[in-house]
Amino acid sequence: MSDRDRGAPADPNASTDPDTSADPVDVAEGRERRADDIIRRRQEERVRTAIKDELSKDDTGDERPRPEDPGPLRGALIELERVDLAFDRPILEDVSFAAFPGETLVIVGESGTGKSTTLKLILRLLQPDNGRVYVKGKDIAPLSFTEALDVRQQMGMVFQSAALFDSMTVFENVAYPLREHTDLSDDEIEARVKEKLEFVDLAPDEVIEKLPAELSGGMKKRVGIARGMANNAEIMLYDEPTSGLDPLTTGTITRLIMKLQRELNVTSIVVSHDIRSAFRMATHIALLADRTIRFFGTPEEMAASDDRYIRDFLGGF
Ligand SMILES: Nc1ncnc2c1ncn2[C@@H]1O[C@H](COP(=O)(O)OP(=O)(O)OP(=O)(O)O)[C@@H](O)[C@H]1O
Ligand SMILES: [Mg+2]
Known about the structure:
Elements: H1 24-56, E1 78-86, E2 90-99, E3 104-109, H2 115-122, E4 130-135, E5 138-139, H3 145-153, E6 155-158, H4 170-181, H5 186-199, H6 204-207, H7 217-228, E7 235-239, H8 247-264, E8 267-271, H9 275-281, E9 284-289, E10 292-297, H10 299-304, H11 308-314
Parallel strand pairs: 3-8, 3-9, 6-7, 7-8
Antiparallel strand pairs: 1-2, 1-4, 4-5, 9-10
The chain binds adenosine-5'-triphosphate and magnesium ion.
């Protein structure tokens, strides 16, 4: 196994175990090398695929060889490594990206390019056909059902529609993950629910007894975020947190996600159509197109790109 892909070339004796408690220097090094790593891996894969194509002209077997497994990037909290996924047709091919602690990675792309699917892979609601998904340096594919639930509970999820339980009050909606997955007392749950509602700028006393149907779209999204963060997850996943909202409410939700990062150092992966809020909140942007990552980098790098597809995607922005 090579250290090159681990972002730790200076330490050839590094343990091969996933190291999620890497010191900040390692994390910074990994972060700097990540973009290069991803590009290099993809180039290597292309070369291998080209060689394989040549060889397979004489080859009757149809098994696709995977190159040597490079292992997880050191210090990354979430990583997809050369992931392929097909339903009735290929959806994701050779998708690689990583998010490091405290980053906000926004995944953008046209409708149907596989953004929600990518989040489902991170939650292990789906499994890749090839490649790996690492959470805190751990490949999540071999986990048992219970272990996978455990990993999922370390992540807060805000779904594409707010996905609140219609027959439950706001209080019960936000308390739900706490009742399901913790042994907090009733008093502790009440305190936690109120804390989270306040964090998303909702007055607890005004909303806790309301049903979702009595809330505006923006309020529902905020309750969804409060529920997603109820477990104090260090990783938050959001699927279109601002879709269908007016610009003011979009601004509020965007600021909320930024506040989580700034005040609690939460790592977020946000799927969004909304390029304006993506540019505001992202530390990094991944653009999905043609089944793969067409661009990965900072908002500044994206804005400076002269790639024709990216320019068109950004439109007048
Ligand atoms: N369970 C499934 N079975 C079959 N096809 C699926 C399934 N889930 C998603 N797809 C297909 O995979 C593709 C990607 O879907 P996905 O929901 O990830 O797109 P998306 O980028 O989130 O789109 P949008 O921006 O519209 O939400 C779509 O073509 C979709 O029809
Ligand atoms: Mg989607």
